[in-house]
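pinging the channel bc i need a second pair of eyes. not urgent but kinda urgent?? the chain im working w is below, pasted from the shared doc
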Amino acid sequence: MGSQARRLKSYLSRLRVSLTTGWLPCGNRSVFSFRPGLTPWANTFRPFRGLLSALKCKALHRDLIAGSIWRWLVSVNLLSAALVSTGFAQTVAALDREAWLRYAPLDAKAARAYDKLPANSVVLGRSVVLESAQRELAGGIEKMLGRKVSSGDRVKDSAIVLGTLHDLDSISPARPPISLEADGYWITWARIRDSECLVITAVNDRGVLYGVFALLSRVARGESVTGIGAAQNPYAPIRWVNQWDNLDGRIERGYGGPSIFFADRKVQSDLTRAGEYARLLASVGINGCTINNVNAAPGILQPSFIVQLKRIADVFRPWGVQLSISVDLSSPKIVGGLDTFDPLDPRVEDWWRKKADELYRQIPDFGGFG
């Protein structure tokens, strides 16, 4: 192989000369065919066939080794994936359904910072929103700190007190440092009936719920609640999201799966996910949701469908989320049977008034047409 290497070196030197002078070492520059019948290039390389064969064998051997290593790595990765797939799937499912509301447990050191957090909660007043706030508080504290929070309706000792400012007046003279607006909240420590209590209060029930989420968010981030005095008002009174769900279950420009509201031109029979979605919206201060595509199907205003919409509003309500819908402006003609849908026509105006009344009878907190 030593002589062949010397010949190859000599050939490469000649080739380098050809690149600078235009002279080809294989003869006539017009011959570029690689067919066996035309031999100038083949004759040039013939002295080095042994060396090229050896190099080819080495390359093949290297590729075989690399292929074996690759197959081994793939096998290890597949085995690892099989071993962790169940746990990974569970984690992804939890994040998909609950996001930050899964309330991951704090480590023992971080949890000790909340040892003085009262172990009881008291709700002043009664409503589905306040009940949601109390359950959320108890569930979040138990998951993050590993401690149960009992519930009650009277302050007997240290407690976390939930209620509107109006109801708080009867047991405490405490007043927020700012003028609270609707959905704003105030979290503070106050002495009530000779006991140190953590108070979450607001102008309305929804503000109390937002205050609970704010407290749980602080705990989730490991922030201190000692001496807390957090008061906030929303930037805007209407904080809305718009879904682009179609009644057949498809979502226009949707990339996260089918609708959680509709299927086969009906409201879903199982609205568990819709309730979870409302909870997630409430946790970030969203107070309304338009549930259908802005390119609305007229059928959503049929009397039989309005009854179904009530079921969605019922799972939204405990989280202070109001339902609204997009409508087709031609509905007076398509659904109502009129010969026009001109908004200036008195018959059209009357049709919309009656349709709105029908919606409010089924959904008293209906948010309107989005």
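so The chain has three domains: 1-96, 108-232, 240-362. and The chain is about 45% helix and 10% strand. — does that match what u expected or am i reading it wrong
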